[in-house]
Design goal:
Layout (H helix, E strand, L loop, with lengths): L6 H6 L8 H15 L9 H30 L3 E5 L3 E4 L2 H7 L3 H10 L4 H5 L5 E3 L3 H15 L4 E6 L7 E5 L2 E5 L11 E12 L2 E6 L5 E6 L2 E13 L6 E11 L6 H5 L3 H13 L15 H24 L7 H4 E6 L5 H13 L4 H11 E4 L10 E3 H7 L1 H21 L6 H5 L2 E2 L5 E3 H7 L3 E4 L2 H9 L3 H7 L4 E3 L6 H7 L2 H11 L21 H26 L8 E6 L8 H16 L3 H5 L4 E6 L7 H17 L9 E6 L4 H7 L5 E4 L11 H7 L3 E4 L5 H8 L5 E2 L4 H13 L6 H12 L9 H8 L7 H20 L1 H13 L6 H13 L10 H6 L1
Parallel strand pairs: 1-4, 1-12, 4-11, 12-13, 13-17, 17-18, 19-20, 19-22, 20-21, 22-23, 23-24
Antiparallel strand pairs: 2-3, 5-6, 7-10, 8-9, 10-11, 14-16, 15-16
Helix pairs in contact: 2-3, 2-5, 4-20, 7-34, 10-12, 12-13, 12-15, 14-15, 23-25, 23-30, 23-32
This protein binds (1S)-1,5-anhydro-1-(3-chloro-2,5-dihydroxyphenyl)-D-glucitol.
The site of (1S)-1,5-anhydro-1-(3-chloro-2,5-dihydroxyphenyl)-D-glucitol has 19 residues, from α7.
Length: 838
């Protein structure tokens, strides 16, 4: 760092962010002319987007620097959020709103000849995630910064994010998402590079004091290079950091020895193999496939992040025992569980601590969040694969398991079976490492993501661990969403209306202020404005539908939306069967009867994992049903079925504000929480849903008159499944008619859908589609009736929004901070924000 006498110059010339329109325009023009080497004669929207982003990035990095300096100086506890996914979406709009300069930018861009919407739309989504889990991590980063918590996110800098979905002849086609061509939001830190080791062997030796030691030697080295993404808080000068690691060959450009010996091709291949580690995001949501490259990704990212965290801790020259007072690490699902083992290895093999001393530090440092009870999603790694890739880590896991099982045996000496049930190593062929069990044993707290889910993990998959560790180790933190992106950014007109009645934008920082809206639930003028905004949002979505699918939809029809990853447990198949049922009902009616029906647009969107055939079949069926219904003159506006291609964060920002009703209809007990349910209600839409995940808590908050619940309860699912398999299973009669129609070929070759129908008719109907079908359709009829009374409908929407305060990710992050991390906010000094502009 710079010696004291020279620091005056640094202070004098310190970078300052712009504040006025004039300064913003100056920055944009400077970036166009110098950074991009273009001019007013060839500045298109892409260049204007780049320049505007760079102007905001400069401003953010100034705030970022001060935030980091303040945190270093305070020398307090920091939180590290380890997530293999961060589904960020676009950054420019968010940055403008969070620093409170969107109006300035809008006027400035206009003065320079651009419309701000067009500029915002130039940005490619940062889509480094699959669905709920990745988007939750992104909402958490927004809340951590907005609440001034000293926190870092750690992830992987994938060259390819989640694939882009195209629909060709009704089928999903995956196109690679190469998003890094131009990304103004990241700072490469070529000086922050960590060597990561793989393969090799373990050497045992005695040190000079005669102590038994282990050392991991040989194998190969890959470099991890840091890329930093600034995360601005809303209405605060705090700007946190998301550090993403990119893999690079260790020998620089290429291996010169191989090059000189004429083996050029193989030296290039080595380099490419190293770069493969961070090349692609695995596109599975709620499914574990056990691929070696995925384990490599996990260790690569975990080892680089821990090296960084430990290096930062060591600068403070504290005793190791203080590590858990300085560092809280949250494991987002089991993906980063190797961090538990890696920290133990660092303390034991590299820092020379005793096992017990090291383990006590490790287990106080970590918290583990579980996001699913689905057995196919729980990570397991084969022991032989582990042995080959991470030999020392496998030894440490065996040792952790040994001490753990010994303690279990002492506690339950008479229980013979418990040891096999809770062992971190599953005695299968081949043996498997159970990552969730390792995460539980290595953490001081384990949480689920909604009340029902947290109860379920305690009574089913982790039941034995509650007996072993006691109930206090297990807790619930119900998920939340950031109101900045999901209300203010996605639905600016609604945000403005709310601000006008609640005394400004304060509700975006304290979402319980929404309560003030309840007194307008019967206010005629307010309701009119409310309904106008909803209608305008539907017109906007109708335009999007027209331009992407060619189908004209009536914005006055009820918009019924289900957008989320396609999965059997989320039951998009039940929704499309419901559409077919509705179609058959319409077809059987007289023109007079049809006139009484409520027009509806059923909108679907979501990606299927590329290898998930049943999910792809569901997409195919939705598209084929749409093709038939949308051109049937008997139906007209009464029903349209739309599949929106390539659902992602930026499309969600258009879709969600336009819903009248959205569907959250998973088989009870399968959806851990769901978070889009919260986004839809916050945007003034009602929901139809099962008693699952956070739907239950949403009902408790907004009142059961304001939600359409249906279907069997979680507690009955097991018995129903048993009855399907061992009793008699009769198909719901309406569903039988739907199947008949599919089999007739009304929606194209019936053979294409036989697996989908067969899963329900012949293979046990695991997700209870038939059991819930009748109650689902009945409830949809109630929705139709309720929608006819627009006056009452709008009141329900207003009351619901007014009661959504609980679902802010700010509430959620404060709960983590208090009950799991034990960290305090570190607010910027007064005037720091003002200082930036001057
Ligand atoms: C995921 O998105 C979720 C769970 C999981 O094990 C893996 C992935 Cl990629 C989702 C849950 O399905 C959803 O219910 C929950 O709201 C979300 O994680 C965030 O907790």
């Amino acid at each position: 760092s710079i010696p004291e006498p020279q620091r005056e110059a640094w202070k004098k010339f310190a970078a300052k962010g712009f504040r006025t329109q004039e300064d913003f325009e100056k920055e944009v023009v400077r970036h166009v002319e110098t950074t991009l080497a273009r001019s007013m004669f060839n500045c298109d929207e892409t260049a204007a987007y780049a320049a505007a982003s760079l102007a905001f990035r400069d401003r953010l990095i100034t705030q970022w620097n001060r935030t980091q300096q303040r945190q270093t100086f305070a020398d307090g506890k920091r939180v590290y959020y380890l997530s293999l996914e961060f589904l960020m979406g676009r950054a420019l709009d968010n940055a403008m709103l969070n620093v409170g300069l969107k109006d300035v930018a809008k006027a400035g861009l206009q003065d320079l000849g651009f419309r701000i919407e067009d500029i915002i739309n130039q940005e490619h989504d940062a889509a480094l995630g699959n669905g709920g889990l990745g988007r939750l991590a992104a909402c958490f980063l927004d809340s951590l910064a907005s609440l001034n918590y000293p926190a870092w996110g750690y992830g992987l800098r994938y060259r390819y994010g989640i694939f882009k979905q195209e629909i060709v002849d009704g089928y999903q086609v995956e196109v690679p998402d190469y998003w890094l061509d131009f990304n103004p939001w990241e700072f490469p830190r070529h000086d922050v590079v960590v060597d990561i080791q793989f393969y090799g062997h373990v050497r045992k030796f005695q040190d000079t004091q005669g102590k038994q030691c282990s050392s991991w030697e040989g194998g190969e080295i890959v470099k991890a290079v840091a890329y930093d993404v600034p995360i601005p808080g809303f209405d605060t000068a705090a700007t946190n950091n998301l550090r993403l690691w990119s893999s690079k060959a260790a020998s620089g450009e290429f291996d010169f020895q191989k090059f000189n010996s004429g083996d050029y091709e193989s030296s290039v291949a080595d380099q490419q193999r190293a770069e493969t580690i961070s090349a692609v995001l695995y596109p599975n949501d709620n499914l574990d496939r056990g691929k070696e490259l995925r384990l490599k990704q996990q260790y690569f990212w975990v080892a680089a992040s821990l090296y960084d965290i430990v290096r930062r801790f060591k600068k403070s020259k504290r005793a190791w025992s203080e590590f858990p007072d300085q560092v809280a690490i949250q494991l987002n699902d089991t993906h980063p569980t190797l961090a538990v083992v890696e920290l133990q290895r660092i303390l034991l093999d590299l820092e020379g601590l005793e096992w017990d001393e090291a383990w006590s530090i490790v287990s106080k440092t970590f918290g583990y969040t579980n996001h699913t009870v689905l057995p196919e999603a729980l990570e397991k790694w084969s022991v032989p694969l582990f042995q080959n890739l991470l030999p020392r880590h496998l030894q440490i896991i065996y040792e952790i398991n040994l001490y753990f099982l010994q303690s279990v045996e002492r506690k339950f000496p008479k229980d013979r079976d418990i040891l096999a049930r809770v062992s971190i190593i599953e005695e299968s062929q081949p043996k498997m490492v159970r990552m969730a069990f390792l995460a539980i044993v290595g953490s001081h707290k384990v949480n689920g993501v909604a009340e029902l889910h947290s109860d379920l993990i305690k009574t089913t998959i982790f039941k034995d661990f509650v007996k072993i560790f006691g109930p206090d180790k297990f807790t619930n933190v119900t998920n939340g969403i950031t109101p900045r992106r999901w209300l203010h950014q996605a639905n600016p007109r609604l945000s403005e209306l709310i601000a006008s009645k609640t005394g400004g934008l304060g509700f975006l920082k304290d979402l319980n202020i929404l309560n003030d809206l309840e007194k307008y639930a019967d206010d005629k003028e307010f309701k009119k404005e409310w309904a106008e905004i909803k209608y305008a949002n539907k017109v906007q979505l109708a335009k999007h539908i027209k331009s992407t699918t060619g189908v004209t939809v009536n914005p006055s029809a009820l918009f019924d939306i289900q957008v989320k990853r396609i999965h059997e447990y989320k039951r998009q198949q039940m929704n499309i069967f419901g559409c077919i049922h509705r179609y058959l009902t319409i077809k059987s009616m007289t023109p007079e009867e049809r006139k009484k029906l409520a027009p509806r647009v059923s909108i679907f969107g979501g990606k299927a994992a590329p290898g998930y055939w049943m999910a792809k079949t569901i997409i195919h069926l939705i598209n084929n049903v749409g093709a038939v219904i949308n051109k049937d003159p008997d139906v007209g506006d009464l029903l349209k079925v739309i599949f929106l291609e390539d659902y992602n964060v930026s499309k969600a920002e258009i879709i969600i504000p336009a819903s009248d009703i959205s569907e959250h209809i998973s088989t009870a007990g399968t959806e851990a929480s769901g978070t889009s349910n919260m986004k839809f209600v916050l945007n003034g839409g009602l929901i139809i849903g099962t008693c699952d995940g956070a739907n239950i808590e949403i009902t408790r908050e907004i009142g059961e008159n304001n939600i359409f619940l249906f279907g069997n309860l979680a507690e009955d699912v097991e018995d129903l499944r048993h009855a399907h398999n061992y009793g008699s299973h009769t198909l719901d009669p309406d569903l039988a008619k739907v199947f008949e129609e599919i089999k007739k070929g009304t929606f194209g070759d019936a053979g294409a859908f036989s697996a989908l129908v067969g899963a329900i008719e012949d293979h046990g109907d695991y997700y209870l589609v038939s059991d819930d079908f009748h109650s689902y359709n009945q409830t949809q009829t109630l929705v139709d009736e309720a929608y006819k009374n627009q006056d009452e409908w709008v009141s329900k929407c207003i009351i619901s929004v007014a009661r959504m305060g609980f679902f802010s990710s700010d509430r959620c992050i404060n709960e983590y901070a208090e009950s799991i991390w034990n960290v305090e906010p570190l607010a910027p000094e007064k005037g720091e924000t003002d200082g930036l502009g001057k």
